[in-house]
Write a structure and sequence with these properties.
CATH topology of one domain: Beta-lactamase
CATH superfamily of one domain: DD-peptidase/beta-lactamase superfamily
Structural class: alpha+beta
Shape: elongated
Largest sheet: 7 strands, mixed
Radius of gyration: 29 Å
Number of helices: 15
Oligomer: single chain
CATH architecture of one domain: 3-Layer(aba) Sandwich
Distance between the termini: 81 Å
CATH class of one domain: Alpha Beta
């Protein structure tokens, strides 16, 4: 007789040991129709034990498509199982059922499983082989009533799955989800994303994608809600891309911090690159690169792109990781899109600098801003902090230290971008709604028109409102991105990154920095 024992699937815990996903044991009473000679009698004996009508049990036994097994009752009690085992032709199987005590809180990171405990999304899928463990199989000698007598052979040893400890902090995840969900509903948006990251390590402290789902109710979930938009959805980033362009040019020595670039009084056009204007038809004259970022001038960064030229700009953008996957340990990540350099035109050189003619993912933008916050040094985002096997041995650990090699830009360039230019965006420019009294914030707003799906050009009513920020500027502990797709412009409450996304980032940052006990310093009022 072959006896199969199923392993307990490993737990998924947050960075502080709180359970995000685990398994409960449950027992199923089953019949073996092929050896039951009198199903009427067996059904009659089983009816009072299982508290199920005899006719219903009879039908389950006689109408089963599997002659070797017919499920009579799932989640049976220990008393029911003990009594059932005494009846010839009846057995008990033990299974594990997944549960998620925090519901939808971190659903896209944690993921979900199938009814037979195979990972189908998130970490459940990414780490499925480690979480699953190994099924045990024993060959037993049994008597004529199929009662085990002794072990003949243990063909496979039972081994429970390894536990997974994430970088996610459930408290910070709650901060992010609550603030994002409130704004998502208030602006009747199509979708929304929030990511909180440690810039020096790449550890993801929170990742929210709305709409989300309850992993315990996966069969009734809207398929559109299952996608982790933070790594699967590509979009033109708009103005949040401008600091990357400026950093590349400053690092190449093609611009300096004191020179002034003429921004053409709001109207720039020429052969080979068409016409470029400013948001709300602003008319800017000569501005420094810091002022260009504070005012978010399209023309200013377009001219910087022209100085770089297509080859240097392309190489710089690729160094920041765009056009390729970040390698985050979650399934389904896409690489975004950027034309090969040989297909670049005059439009490319002037549009890519302010976030058009390139598509990115939210996690790519977060990584780029982490590079700036990390003194120009490369980082890789990750969500799996460690794995612990069934014996308690750590089998995988992400070291929380700076990467040993790999500067994308010079440290002094990254420091100036963060401490001067992007801090000024908060203090003087479009990011004022994200100012915090206790910490100096740095960041950049972005309002990207969504391209029309059925014709050329951009929609006048559909936007992606984004804001990326970090704090404290002098030694960044977190980088936060919020991106909200298609806020309802007709509501009259605004649709820009500054109006829609930056207040959400401010809420998340203030609560997170307080929770992490990050030392504060008073910022003088600059209004």
């Amino acid at each position: 007789m072959l006896v199969t024992e199923y392993p307990q699937r490993g737990e998924i815990l947050d960075r502080r040991g709180r359970v995000l996903g685990a398994s409960n044991k449950y027992k199923t009473v089953k019949a073996e129709p092929q050896i039951i000679k009198d199903p009427v009698k067996v059904a009659g004996l089983m009816a009072p034990i299982l508290d199920i009508e005899g006719i219903d049990l009879y039908k389950k036994i006689t109408e089963s498509r599997n002659p070797g097994s017919a499920r009579l009752k799932e989640n049976a009690s220990e008393a029911e199982c003990r009594a059932a085992r005494k009846i010839y032709g009846i057995g008990v199987d033990t299974y594990w059922r997944r549960y998620y005590p925090m519901g939808p809180l971190a659903s896209h990171v944690v993921g979900f499983t199938s009814i037979d405990n195979n990972g189908l999304g998130g970490v459940e899928l990414e780490c499925n082989s480690q979480l699953t463990g190994h099924t045990g199989r024993d060959i037993l000698l049994a008597d004529s009533r199929r009662r085990p007598i002794r072990l003949i052979q243990q063909s496979e040893r039972l081994e429970d799955g390894s536990g997974v400890i994430l970088t996610i902090d459930a408290t910070i995840q709650q901060f992010a989800r609550s603030a994002l969900l409130e704004q998502y509903k208030a602006f009747e948006a199509e979708s929304a994303i929030a990511i909180v990251t440690e810039p020096h390590t790449g550890a993801i402290l929170a990742m929210v994608s709305l709409p989300d789902f309850d992993p315990e109710q996966i069969s009734s979930a809207d398929p559109e809600s299952l996608r982790n938009r933070a790594i699967t959805d590509q979009f033109e980033p708009g103005s949040i891309f401008k600091p990357i362009t400026v950093a590349i040019a400053l690092d190449a020595g093609l611009v300096n911090k004191t020179e002034k670039i003429y921004c053409e009084d709001g109207h720039y056009y020429g052969k080979g690159f068409g016409r470029i204007g400013e948001y709300r038809n602003h008319r800017y004259g000569k501005m420094t690169i810091k002022e260009i970022l504070v005012k978010s001038s399209n023309i200013g960064v377009a001219k910087i792109g022209q100085r770089l030229g297509k080859d240097r700009l392309y190489r710089g953008v690729r160094r920041f990781g765009f056009g390729k996957r970040t390698g985050i340990d979650l399934p389904g990540e896409v690489e975004g899109f950027m034309w090969p350099v040989e297909k670049w035109t005059g439009y490319s050189v002037t549009r890519v600098p302010f976030g058009q003619e390139i598509t990115v993912t939210a996690i790519q933008i977060v990584r780029a801003f982490c590079i700036l916050a990390n003194g120009g040094r490369a980082i890789q985002p990750f969500v799996v902090r460690a794995m612990v096997d069934h014996k308690g041995k750590i089998t995988k650990l992400k070291r929380q230290s700076l990467p040993s090699v790999g500067y994308v830009i010079k440290p002094e360039v990254a420091k100036w971008i963060v401490n001067d230019a992007l801090s000024a965006v908060i203090n003087e420019g479009t990011g004022k709604r994200a100012r915090l009294d206790k910490w100096q914030v740095f960041g950049k707003t972005g309002t990207a028109n969504i391209a029309k799906s059925n014709e050329r050009g951009y929609s006048d009513s559909d936007y992606i409102a984004s804001f990326v920020a970090g704090a404290p500027a002098e030694n960044p502990r977190i980088v936060v991105l919020v991106s909200i797709r298609k806020p309802n412009k007709k509501l009259g409450k605004g649709y820009t990154g500054g109006a829609v996304a930056s207040p959400v980032v401010a809420k998340i940052m203030e609560k997170t920095l307080t929770y992490l006990d990050v030392p504060s310093r008073v910022i003088e009022d600059q209004d």
